[in-house]
Amino acid sequence: MSESGGGRRLVALVSGGNRGLGRAVAADLMARGCRVFLGARNIIDGIETAKELNASVANIVSRNGIAAAAAAAAAVAPNGGDAKAECQAIALDVTNRSSIEACATAVAKAAPQGLDILVNNAGIMMEAAPSFDVNKDTTTALRAALDTNFTGAVALTEALLPQLLQVSTNADRGKSSSSSAHILFISSGVGTRTMGLLSDDDRTALQAAPDVKLLHGELERIASLLCNSKSSTITSSSPSTVGRREGGEGGGGGGGGVGVGGERASGDETKERHRHPYFEIPSVGYGLSKAGVNCYAQLLARTYSPDKVRVNACSPGFTRTGMCDGYTGSRVPKEVELGASVVDKVLFTPLGAGHSGCFFKEASKPGTPLVESVSIKEAWVSLPK
Predict the structure, then answer these.
(1) Residue 242 and residue 33: Cα distance in Å, rounded?
(2) Averaged over 25-37, what is the pLDDT?
(3) What letter would DSSP give residue 67?
(4) CB atoms < 10 A from the CB of 303, how many?
């Protein structure tokens, strides 16, 4: 069983945890013996997921073959909202400040010794929706992705930082054998590739930002280059509703922007202009938001020494979650358990031991047995070949 000092189980929170990758991560954490707060935008769905996970915890085997401890199974309660349960659902909408504050307050009350692990998983990729139109929805997707994937992750992390830092304080006082907490951002190789496609000046401005306010300002500046650029302007009489959230979160947005391709919609009023070259970046909204997340992870790692809190990011790779429900390409997504295994390796195996300020990815091909899966460390920037 994963424990802190005095026999206390490690406490973890997973945002967007009621389905897909978040659910798989929560199951892995429970298999390690952790007490898990499962953040869910829809608390009813979250409670149902927590009940299912709690009911099966005695039989869960972690992705590397370690059975959940018998003592952990004995603590299972029938109610997904029971404070003594292995997994407890908690209402969490990362786009809502009040929801984030209420979540932080609830966690502080339920786990007064601190939060050992924060997995920032909640996210949105509107470009993955079947109804997504690159000509009309790209700027809407950009705005939504930044608000959820970047701003939401930052707000949640900042709200929980006191509880995360408390773990190292307890260790200093001899109250805990766990030296520091761990913040892990679920990111994407799309973010590292987007960084590689930005100009040298923009890439440097993001990576060298000295604080989160300036980092956010640089992201907004780059976003404005796209939203306000002289690109093909398309007026549509019926804005589309698109959106795809991972972790069971729903989302949507109207049309009105311009995306890669720049083709005219038949019958629409159009006006030809020059578009910004960043429109050529695939899934630029999602990519820029994940690039921002990666830069925030690096900023936190520079701000706090590893003995205070460790901060890393990881990519599960192209994984079979709700984000690829409408995918019709030839690329085969990997199993969600396989994608989630990178989180377990970074948190609990030598791969991530002692590291802070690093980017990891699950490198296994679809169909790889979990016991043979391989995760690796990669650079924060993937330059085009």
Answers:
(1) 38
(2) 95
(3) B
(4) 13
